[in-house]
Design goal:
With 296 residues, the protein is an alpha/beta fold. The chain folds into two domains: 175 residues, 3-Layer(aba) Sandwich (Rossmann fold); 81 residues, Orthogonal Bundle (DNA polymerase, domain 1). 46% of the residues lie in helices and 14% in strands. It has 14 helices and seven strands. It has a seven-stranded mixed β-sheet, with helices on both faces. Helix 8 packs antiparallel against helix 9 and helix 12 runs parallel beside helix 13. The protein is globular.
Amino acid sequence: MTKIKHIPVMLIETIRALDIKPDQWYVDATFGQGGHSREILNRGAKVVAFDYDQNNIEANQDTFALEIKAKSLILIRENFDQLERIISELDLSIAGILFDFGTTSEQLLSTDRGISFEGEDQELDMRLDDRLGVKARDLLAVLGEKQLQKILEVFGGEREAKKITRTIIKKRRAGEFITTVGQLVKLVRDTKTHRPSRIHPATKVFQALRIAVNDELSSIDRALPQAIKILKPGGKIITIAFHQGDDRIVKNYFKEWEKVNKGQQLTKKVIKPTAEEISNNPGARSSRMRIFEKNK
């Protein structure tokens, strides 16, 4: 995979929110290329970093070799829904947890997973963890019309989900299966009503399939209760969401925790990136940060 520089989103706000203390352990639940972890380490703290993408783990073995050797950084190839088990095995006290639910620039732009529009001949795979069994092409081949339409609507916010789904099913019944990036892009372009837009017409469809393949929303739903459990009193959970579905799950958990007196939300309204950050990193545009502090 070609190395593409990923810019961590709301880095200054994240570090400020975590209120990092030297020698304390923090969890970076979505390591990526390690931008947030690097800043935590630079402040004398220690990090347990989760990432289920083997490419991210391998790419950073050399970049963070000194920190790994010094045991100030522990890299774990697991989904963050394994938080409680891993932290229990490591027997660590956790002072703060960061969830950045976005995918890295490298993942989005790579042409070898079927996520980017550029790799037209690439298989529609979309797995960020190659240990998963189901690919995007499999979903397009086996899901019923209602199931597929719901995925496009709920995970992608695709307004023309019904038309797109019907076209996929029609082709499938005729023996034409959508298996490559180029085939899906063409189908969406040919099916959708043409409207002026800054984004690629297939963006929401690809997003929806990626979320479904990687079980992203369910993973968040499983991980957050574990996060509040392993966090020490006074610790903070920081979330950065790029999708309404991600943010809705976080918002609901934070509200519920506040009701049962587990702590308090420090962000009654979400924190958004500054205009300067969006100018320097357009990928940050849709990001939304929330902060929850566990009772002391």
